[in-house]
Amino acid sequence: MTGQTTPTWTPAEARVYPLRLYGDPILRRKAKPLTLTDTFNVPGVGPQNVRQVAQTMLETMFEARGVGLAAPQVGLPVRMFVAVEYEDDEEENEGQDSPLRSRVLRDFVMINPVVSVLNKKKDRSYQEGCLSIPGIYEEGVPRARAVSVKYTDLEGHQQILEAEDYLARVFQHELDHLDGVLFLDRLPPEVTDDYRKELLALQQKSRTLIGDLAQADRLRRERGGA
């Protein structure tokens, strides 16, 4: 949730993942459950286990100066997301030079999360954005004020976490990604229409990135990689 990314990609950048952009079909797919023993062929990177994926997703989120990141946003259609709670209210921290990790209260890796609404009253007061739709921010996205999330952690333990206000919004945003829903979908259609030019440009960048990743995968196979 929120941030910026550059669409070009080479294997040398595997410290972080390339972020899938608006227009990429994977952002519209319903993600599937996973198990801790799964291994994924990460597009443009190669085989990684769940723990490796989770760690790289966290690094990618911090690099993009975000507060959450779902697996479909890095090309994996599985039900996992990472998120973070910072020590102050400057969630996006755009234009700041201080490392985000220095301000982390706690971070989360949520596998197969299920959200239950604790407070049905909708909140529309926060500005919302998305790492897959960089540069576009809107207020008015309706989200439940309080939720409970049941999930599996990286140790295989079942956890239940309650969240309110902004953190509850972050969790709901990332859960939407696992169901193929973007935050613009929850606003009136004219909002998307207002950003038609920007979204068309993102679609073009998305096509370029998909091609870059396919080429990286071909090169890896030619060199004997998995």
Automatic annotation (TrEMBL):
Coiled coil regions, renumbered to chain: none
The reaction(s) this protein catalyses: N-terminal N-formyl-L-methionyl-[peptide] + H2O = N-terminal L-methionyl-[peptide] + formate
Active-site residue list: E174
EC number annotated for this UniProt entry: 3.5.1.88
GO biological process: translation
GO molecular function (one): metal ion binding
HAMAP family: Pep_deformylase
Annotated function: Removes the formyl group from the N-terminal Met of newly synthesized proteins. Requires at least a dipeptide for an efficient rate of reaction. N-terminal L-methionine is a prerequisite for activity but the enzyme has broad specificity at other positions.
NCBIfam families, per database record: pept_deformyl, PRK00150.1-3
Family: Belongs to the polypeptide deformylase family.
Name the UniProt record assigns to this protein: Peptide deformylase
Protein source organism: Deinococcus marmoris
Gene field: def
